[in-house]
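As a warm-up, study this chain.
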Amino acid sequence: MNWITNYVRPRINSIFSRREVPENLWQKCEECGTMLFHRELYENLNVCTNCGHHMVISPRDRFKALFDGGVFAEIAVPEPIADPLHFRDQKKYPDRMKAAQKDTGEKEAMLVATGDIGRTPIVAVAQDFSFMGGSMGMYVGNAIVAAAQEAVKLKRPLILFSAAGGARMQEGILSLMQMPRSTVAVQMLKEAGLPYIVVLTHPTTGGVTASYAMLGDVHIAEPNALICFAGPRVIEQTLGERLPDGFQRAEYLLDHGMLDRVTPRTEMRAELIRITRMLLNLPPAVQGELPAPDSATDEKSVAETAGTETAKQPAAAVPPGRK
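Now compare it with the structure written out below.
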């Protein structure tokens, strides 16, 4: 055995060899197959620069792009009972939760925050599809109730970004109970005369679609988002017929009157600013990039102005034709 050839030389080469390029610098578009540089993809809000395909984006990254200066404050959500049914399939429910928390870096499938968009104070809620499919459990119900209570307290509109595969089976009937709970939370906003805007992202299905995702004053969807209760494969197997092309996609629902707008993610912030200020009967926002609020006093004054205008004209909070 040649000690220099078999051990020393490989050891020296491994020390002085060039570092390999990290695997996460490039991401392949699922739709067109284009290789996208990670920084360019991040700056374009996870939208393919070649074909416009909308990839999954985390609630935290979405909020950074939505709020003025990327500044927002998280709202605390009451913790539900952990593993109330002691559910176990291939894994225990607590083990699945720990794995999802490790993968996403988030505590649960929904993030609630307050901040300004175009100098307009709002409360925002966003679901994380990467966290157990964005499934609706007790925490999600608590998050929606907490967001609605905060919006009523501060007299701010609520904007919700939905992305879910339905109810969380590990919580059984307790997850289904979040449908009426979230409906009551939305009714609190209606009674307070505050706008409730829903942005449906890919995918929004199951009990989420059957409750808070379709109760908004205005419904906006991202392009080609799947929005349904039962999926197209289940319907095809039940009916034994082939469904139309694009069935249950955002553009199909827009053509059939279930949505108000289909807006690309890169244009969503400007769209939400325009619609929110219109529903609050406020003048159009100043065009261009806006910095974060300079002080708490500035934020408080804007919130008081928005709340006063809403109280004066409660009818303006709901567009014509919606109850």
